[in-house]
Amino acid sequence: MRLLVFFIASLLSLTNWGSTGHRALAEVASFYLTENAKNKINEILDGETIVTVSMYADDIRSDNRYDKYYDWHFINMELDEDYEDAVPSEKGDVFIAINKCLDILESDSLTDSDKSFYLKLLIHFIGDLHQPMHIGRYEDRGGNRVYVKWFGRNSNLHRVWDSEMINGYNMSYSELAKNLPTPENLEIEFERDDLIDWVNETHSYTRKIYNDVSIDDNLGYEYQYQNFQIVRELILKGGMRLASVLNYLFD
Ligand SMILES: [Zn+2]
Domain ranges in the chain? Predict the structure, then answer.
């Protein structure tokens, strides 16, 4: 029984920031929304919150009707490349996805259900954009094939950054959201051009993460101590940026 539970837990942790990371990031965003934006978002989400919908884009991944969105969660880039020099994926990537969601949400002729669908995707993808292993190399599937040990157990570099480090602290999403660094600059006025800078900034962490780790390394508390600060900074930044995007759209 315990093995089965462990197996299911491992399966669930295969994708994305993990629910705690996504939810903490959305919780941070909720601190910085204007009243106008809050009201509009409430209306569109019809009783749900940006926290409760933040994992929707992952939840629908198991449903093959949504296969065309599979590649929207990540970018594959060489470590020495900037996004503007990379060959864009024909199937889309998280940068293309965010721009599509923005285009759609900015258009006038939109049904209520489309509005809610693309808003949910947008909230999730801003989160994915701030997880460095979502902008990893193609050949190892963003670190999913960089096999390492996490406190002696089999894991991989992608999963360490999605969930292992965060889960190691055993905090709820709201505890994590309350235990982030103090933001330095509260005012972010969102412009579309910012997106590419955000990609390249996250990617600078990706480069360092790959360079610090070799296959079969046994990562544990030392790795956690050295890197969790980056996770906290990116969740804070991602959350504040998500708020800036939502204020731009709905205020
Ligand atoms: Zn995702």
Answer: 2-250
111 CA from centroid of ligand 1 (Å)? 24
Q: What is the 78 CA–ligand 1 centroid distance (Å)?
A: 20
Q: 55: CA distance to ligand 1 center in Å?
A: 8
Supply the DSSP string of 186-208, one letter for each residue: ------TTHHHHHHHHHHHHHHH
Give the model confidence (pLDDT) of 118-148 as tens digits.
Answer: 999 999 999 999 999 999 999 999 999 999 9
- Whether the model pTM is above 0.90: yes
Residue among 103, 98, 101, 104 nearest 75 (CA):
98
Q: Does domain 2-250 have CATH number 1.10.1040.50?
A: no
Give me ligand 1 centre to Cα 58, in Å: 5
pLDDT in tens, 22-59: 999 999 999 999 999 999 999 999 999 999 999 999 99
- Three-state secondary-structure class, residue 156: strand
